[in-house]
Amino acid sequence: MRFDLPDTPPGAEALRAELRAFLAEAGRAWTPDIRARSWMGFDRDFSREVGARSWIGMTWPAAYGGHERSGLERVVVLEEMLAAGAPVGAHWIGDRQSGPLILRLGTEEQRRRILPGIARGELAFCIGLSEPDAGSDLANLRTKAERVPGGWKLNGRKIWTTFAHKSDYMIALVRTSPAPEGGSRHAGLSQFLVDLKLSGISIRPIRDLAGADSFNEVTFDDVMLGEDDLVGAEGAGWAQATSELAFERSGPDRYLSSFPALSQGLDALAANPVPGAEVSVGRMVARLSALRGMSLSVGGMLERGEDPAVEAALVKDVGNVFEQVLPEHLRGLLDPEDSPAELRALLAALTQLTPTFSLRGGTREILRGIIARDLGLR
Amino acid sequence: MSELRSILVEQVERLVADAGGVAPLREVEAGHFPQSLWDGLSEQGLALALVPEEAGGVGLSWGDAAALWQVLGKHGAPVPMAETMLGAALLSAAGVEVPDGVLALGEKAAPFGRHATNAVKLDGARLTLHPVEGATPGANIGREPRDDLTLGQRSAAGILPNSHGPRALRQGLALIRAAQIAGALERILALAVDWANTRRQFGRPIGKFQAVQQQLAAMAGEVAAVQVAVSNAARAVDARGLAEAGFEIGCAKVVAGEAATFGAATAHQVFAAIGITEDHELHHFTRRLWAWREEGGTDRAWAAEIGKLALARGGANLWPDLTARDA
């Protein structure tokens, strides 16, 4: 493993200032629950505003609605959005994953059809990976697409699909041919661009423990897909899906989820000092600084075209622990009676969200398995 | 990593590795000074590595130096080269000619003080050089010499520039210890992985058990965090000088201290009984990790400082303050 800190991109300060002014204004309307949800919060109006300011699809070519900025400038935007607890969920997946996938492997038609809409903050994406019998063991998935005249027929079921009920498209990983006898189960999988308005698709929200509808069960019953809905190469779906993991796992969304609570917690502690609190606060701030360095390092490596898959797993693993213990550390310091109502509400919301941090995007156990393999243990 | 840095790191690593594994560590712990290793490193000009070229030094960056300190830490750092590099850098910055030989930092619990010919003291911005006239031997739990010194009248004095600040000694030492911790952690992680792949129980290497894999993977995360925190701190010194890099150095020492605690515990858990025997090499590194946590300011002390500042600045400034320090 190797981490090299990148140089700050030129113009970063001005970009941050612009973002902060925008977020201060937009943030007036955000409840503690919205701030706690952050990239798990879905707000199409907000995403359209962000798109209008050229902050989605930042690195993509202008021909597809992008803005031809650097990957590290994009990170500046992500950091500022998350530090403010902005509800970025409606464009987050398209900007982070689905758009880059289509840009890299999609057909020209797909790029022109999809990318400008994502960049405008108008097209929302979800990722169809998990199935009832395929979670951490993703290659066990059974949803399948069969070749039929004029395209593909899709049947099966996806589950835990975040925002399927509010999204326009799903990038689904499905089986297009049986796994070869005795061969790798990673063979025969393909990715499809699925328009969620197609007939034969039913989406059932699954209420989560906090009472919110954020994830879903999605059933495909003889859904007809066109030839041009296949993304990339038939049978190459596993490699395609896993090649985006370094982007998915290394960003500030893997360590900043609880940040708004730290920021507000400081003010509560300043108003009602607790002996020794500065030590706990200092430990959290030091961790935050180190994690930010780790995440930025991976951002720099991605910008140079490297494939820091293990480094990304390390960012996510260390980052998830941090964002999970942060609310607990604050809870250990703050007397609820002395805390402002907004902070109490923020901590209440975060407490119910923290279990997801080390589940979404690869469980802690899977990540540590990847790291262990790199260490030479598997 | 720049080419110069990787060549240097390679050279120093070869010198230290050729000195005979843990033999020099045992030598130091038995009260002897590994003279040939010191001479070998001195011949590379390492003592003057942080002294600018125009002042007769090598002119390395702090980033380069931190990479070297990590290598020293990886091998237990049985000689006071890092301390001497820091002492020389400060003397030179204050316009004082750097004497040959080991430099002691301060006069209380001075690292390898009994082997030093001169000691550096800092009072405010005033830096003084003193001959070492006597030493009351002491040691940390790494069994490295930490001696109380009797110093003679100052032989030279100078004023540190504002870029270094009145806490230059403490901050420099904190960065050194954090870098050494990063190196030593890298070492015990490698040792533990090797052991997990070798030691068999229940018919297979213990490293095939997920419980062991998960622990070592978690440890790897801590090692990565320290390495990044140390690089970030060294880069801050290069960009803004020691005086303005207290935050990053403090962060590095906090993360290093926490990681040392976790890493030493994890390695011992993986090694089990064999790892706590005197004959085994593990304890030479874990005892140093426990000792280095305490030196140059504990993680607790640095965390208190960082936390106090963050509380005083308030929640709204936390994030802008962090990004404003980007190099």
Characterization of this structure:
- The complex is a heterodimer of chains A (about 375) and B (about 325).
- By secondary structure, chain A is of the alpha+beta class.
- Chain A folds into three domains: about 10-125, Acyl-CoA dehydrogenase/oxidase, N-terminal domain (Butyryl-Coa Dehydrogenase, subunit A, domain 1), CATH 1.10.540.10; about 125-235, Butyryl-CoA Dehydrogenase, subunit A, domain 2; about 245-375, Butyryl-CoA Dehydrogenase, subunit A, domain 3, CATH 1.20.140.10.
- Chain A has helices spanning about 10-25, 30-35, 45-50, 70-85, 90-105, 110-120, 235-245, 245-250, 260-270, 275-305, 310-335, 340-355, 365-375; strands at about 125-130, 145-150, 150-160, 170-175, 190-195, 200-205, 215-225, 230.
- In chain A, helix 9 runs parallel beside helix 11 (about 310-335).
- Chain A starts with 11 loop residues before the first helix and ends with a helix.
- Chain B is α+β, with helices and mostly antiparallel strands.
- Chain B contains eleven helices and eight strands.
- Chain B has helices at about 5-20, 25-30, 35-45, 60-75, 80-95, 170-200, 210-240, 245-270, 280-295, 300-315, 315-325; strands at about 105, 110, 120-125, 125-135, 145-150, 155-160, 200, 205.
- In chain B, helix 6 (about 170-200) runs antiparallel to helix 9 (about 280-295).
- The longest helix of chain B has about 30 residues, at about 170-200.
- Chain B is globular, with a radius of gyration of 20 Å.
- The mean pLDDT of chain B is about 95.
- Classes of the chains: A alpha+beta (about 375), B alpha+beta (about 325).
- Chains A and B meet through helix 1, helix 9, helix 10, helix 11 and helix 13 of A and helix 6, helix 7, helix 8, helix 10 and helix 11 of B.
- Chain B: This is Acyl-CoA dehydrogenase.
- Chain B: Belongs to the acyl-CoA dehydrogenase family.
- Chain B: It is an enzyme of class 1 (oxidoreductase).
- Chain B: Keywords: FAD, Flavoprotein, Oxidoreductase.
- Chain B: Its EC number is 1.3.8.7.
